[in-house]
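[Q] Does anyone have a clean structure-token version of this?
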Amino acid sequence: MGSLARFRLTGGEAGDSLQALPLLQDLQPDSLSADKAYDTDTILEHLVSAGIEAVIPPRNHRLVQRPFDRHLYKNRNLVARFFCPVKQFRRIATRYDKLAERFASFVALTASVIWLA
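[A] Here you go.
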């Protein structure tokens, strides 16, 4: 199972891919596995310049379909397997907290408890 490195809360209508570059700062993974939503030129250029392998399937509307490692892409389920135990905590699943700071603090606490277990 994967563990949480960093996270950032956004509004429900905000796309996740906008937060990818700020979250990747100072991280140097060998590869980055993500779904098609992260197939943007900006993210791909950043990964190439940082020497990080992009394991992101290309969107269907791309004129040139770039290759990606399908075997490594299967490991993307680590993200989903991390969120399943997190959602077992009722306070996170129901989003009781009204303030983003409190909700973010509880997400961090929950990730720590799962990491220690």
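[Q] Thanks! Anything notable?
[A] The chain is about 45% helix and 5% strand.
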